Amino acid sequence: MTKVSYVDSDILIIGGGMAGTGAAWEARYWGRNLKIVLVEKANIDRSGAVAMGLSAINTYLGLKYNENTIEDYVNYVKTDLMGVVREDLVYDYARHVDSTVYLFDEWGLPIFKDENGRYVREGRWQIMIHGESYKPIVAEAAKKSVSEIYNRVMITHLLKDSQNPNRVAGAIGFNVRDGRVYVFRSKAVIVSAGGGSQIYRPRSTSEGKGRTWYPHWSSGSSYGMLIEAGAVMTMMEARFSVPRYKDGYGPVGAWQLMLKAKQTNAYGQDPFSLHKEELKKLYDGKFKYVDAFPTPTNLRVYSSLLELKQGRGPIYLHTEQVLTEKNEELGWEDFLDMTITQAILWAGQNIDPIKTPSEVLPSEPYVMGSHATECGAWASGPEDMVIKEAKSVDERGTSYNWGYNRMSTLDGLFLAGDACGASPHKFSSGSFTEGRIAAKSAVRYIKEHSDENVSPDSSQVEQLTVKIFEPIERYNRNKRMITGGKVSSNMMWYEQGMARLQKLMDEYAGGWGSWYTTNEHMLLRAQELLTYLKEDFLNYAVAEDYHQLLRTWELWHRILTAEAVVNHMLFRKETRWPGYYVRSDFPALDDDNWRVFVNSKYDAKTGAWKLWSVPVVELR
Amino acid sequence: MPTFVYTSRCVGCGDCVDICPSDIMHFTKDRKTVNVEPDACWECMNCVKVCARFAIDVRSYADFVPMGHSISVFRDEKSQKVYWRIKYRNGKVKEFAFPIRTTPWGSIKPPQELPEPDPQDLYTPLLSSEKENTIKIEVSRK
Ligand SMILES: Cc1cc2nc3c(=O)[nH]c(=O)nc-3n(C[C@H](O)[C@H](O)[C@H](O)COP(=O)(O)OP(=O)(O)OC[C@H]3O[C@@H](n4cnc5c(N)ncnc54)[C@H](O)[C@@H]3O)c2cc1C
Ligand code: SF4
Ligand code: SF4
């Protein structure tokens, strides 16, 4: 018999990473008497993308010292994403992000400071930290803020209100250690369950497969849950790849911005200068993206790819030209605090960065909303920046504002961090900030809806309680048919489903194996294969224990995320970010027709997707 | 392999099981621990840092990293530092120490101990710790 626990709350936070811990803090600040519950599939002391630590805070404006203006920041982000961002969302987190950084400083995060006590800049927007304990520090703040924390409980589905199918009333999941089912009933829910890696075939192989840049545990759960609940999604086609040190995945930011290391092809030439004129022909658009400073990330990546394709690789980052005995500690800390594999790789390959350059390579694609890209759900913007230009049948899915800041198109459901789309470049500090914004908004929402009586639909709860354990039941039914191993005609383990997903996404939806190139035919094939995979998941998925059950539901979230990605890529008939992917049947950027958001909505009953575009509106 | 556990040192306290973000440090039948899914390991070393018995070690991904290297870490909440020792395949050694926190653990003052906000501020964009003059609320166009 399945054991079930019911947990009631005013605010439920799903995922205690950067955005979730920010939400916990702010929810308590404004809602002193509220019951605030945080649920996390790992342990919030070391969970999410910051589990290992970080060596920089990538978003800090320094407004109080007039280091930057919010307008300059918004322009920078807009240009980096080739003109398609929600300016209201970006402006909103940017005006608050400094206060987040001051909180971190006060709590004890070691931030590099100069003689005058000012933060040391890594780049125009970035500052340096000793961030080994970044996550346990923000976790301490969150633990003191919430009423209860449920660690090791993985959320599989959002729950709808019994009366109103457009109202979210909680979430359901299970404890990955003892299999207990948790039914969370809540007046407001904040989704902050991070982004998606391991959806595309990683470049790493075999034992090293877990070494991707974004962690293995970023399971696309935010997207999977939101899609299945019918929230409007946006910009899922903007899945992106990052240039990183080859194999070790060490980030290049500090090396390029602070140490000023140069990237060249094998013959010492700068890939971007070599291809600049060629890029202008197809990708300059109305805003002269190719001449922009700094060059949009995806255009730099694209020029390296062109060099690699022409056989002039490897691409090197010339650490040996900038690193000396004096500053080497800085370079090493960058990795020891954030990507330890890179340090071990150097040790294993006898690479001394003072003497030898290191290879860089664009990674496998990731689906994310907090880094230099913008996948996620469509959110209502800040109340003081009301933009009401878009109109159509589906009012919420086409307008910028229909009520509460960071509320999704579903009532009572809020978004932050990787979960919130069209709001890129948040990174760690911006994600925490967006969590704060969403939580304040949620407090206001429940205050203004205090007369509402919400309760999850009981038949949905019953069905899901059974469905969550189906893979284990199926395994128990079928296991005696075979002598052992993982080969069976009526059982599919998560490893097999993952491999199938990664292979098809890589080959047909613009992974590294197809040089990040796709077209309509390939995408239609991806769609077809994904449909089979979904069917197989529902009919054959098995799990032998609760750990495998965790992986199995992660796989489900990844499959839904992938389906959204493929549908969005099919819809956008142009190539907007050539370094992220090229649609070979529409190889140029087309500002006249496609400087728009692509939005979508999934119908879980029929499996049908609806897609449409929404114009980009500027604040100024 | 990524992480692995030395049988003689592990006392089965479960701290590594408790912390692993990937949920892959599991107990064996005789209550030692083992990394059950090395290809889902990120080499974040959180299990290594938490193990008071120094029972967990890392041998980097053998399918692309040559053997013969080693890395050890000691994270100390008393001195508030993390100490690293990296040994190259060719025997060269590098050592580093970095700060981890500037305030005592447990010292964060929770939001409920801060003065209650003005109820009206719930209807402004202001967040906790922000005062009107520290952020620019107006945008150029509505
Ligand atoms: C290697 C690397 C380097 C980076 N460098 C920097 C940098 O230098 N500076 C910077 O500012 N940013 C950097 N970032 C980016 C930053 O880490 C992210 O932008 C930020 O963590 C995103 O916050 P989030 O809350 O959306 O996701 P996360 O922090 O990943 O949190 C998501 C949380 O949800 C939990 N979760 C997921 N699914 C479920 C589920 N189904 N049920 C329950 N819980 C679930 C996860 O366990 C996790 O705790 C880096 C990231 C990486 C990986
Ligand atoms: S933390 Fe160390 S001693 Fe404790 S169970 Fe893990 S390996 Fe064994
Ligand atoms: S290194 Fe990290 S991912 Fe690997 S077993 Fe240890 S805690 Fe888990």
Structure commentary:
The complex is a heterodimer of chains A (about 625) and B (about 140). Chain A is an alpha/beta fold. Chain A has 17 helices and 19 strands. In chain A, helix 1 (about 20-30) links the parallel strand 1 (about 5-15) and strand 2. The mean pLDDT of chain A is about 95. The termini of chain B are far apart. Chain B has a domain at about 5-100: 2-Layer Sandwich (Alpha-Beta Plaits). With about 140 residues, chain B is mostly beta strands. Chain B is elongated, with a radius of gyration of 23 Å. Helix content of chain B is about 5%, strand content about 25%. Classes of the chains: A alpha/beta (about 625), B mainly beta (about 140). At the A-B interface, helix 1, helix 3, helix 4, helix 9 and helix 10 of A face strand 5, strand 6 and strand 7 of B. The complex binds flavin-adenine dinucleotide and iron/sulfur cluster (2 copies). One iron/sulfur cluster (SF4) binds near residues 2, 21 and 35 of chain B. Flavin-adenine dinucleotide binds near residues 16, 48 and 338 of chain A.
Please tag this protein with its features.
heterodimer; A: 620 residues; alpha/beta; four-stranded antiparallel beta sheet; 17 helices; 19 strands; 37% helix; globular; B: 142 residues; mainly beta; Alpha-Beta Plaits; two-stranded antiparallel ribbon; 2 helices; 7% helix; disordered C terminus; binds flavin-adenine dinucleotide; binds iron/sulfur cluster
Q: Give the number of helices of chain A.
A: 17
Task: Output the radius of gyration of chain B.
Answer: 23 Å
This entry's quaternary arrangement is: heterodimer
Main sheet characteristics of chain A: 7 strands, mixed
Could you list the spans of chain B in which at least 5 consecutive residues all have pLDDT below 50?
137-142
Summing up helix and strand content along with how strands pair, one would put the structural category of chain A as alpha/beta
End-to-end Cα distance of chain A: 60 Å
User: What is the C-level CATH assignment of the domain at 3-99 in chain B?
Assistant: Alpha Beta
Largest interface: A-B, 86 and 78 residues
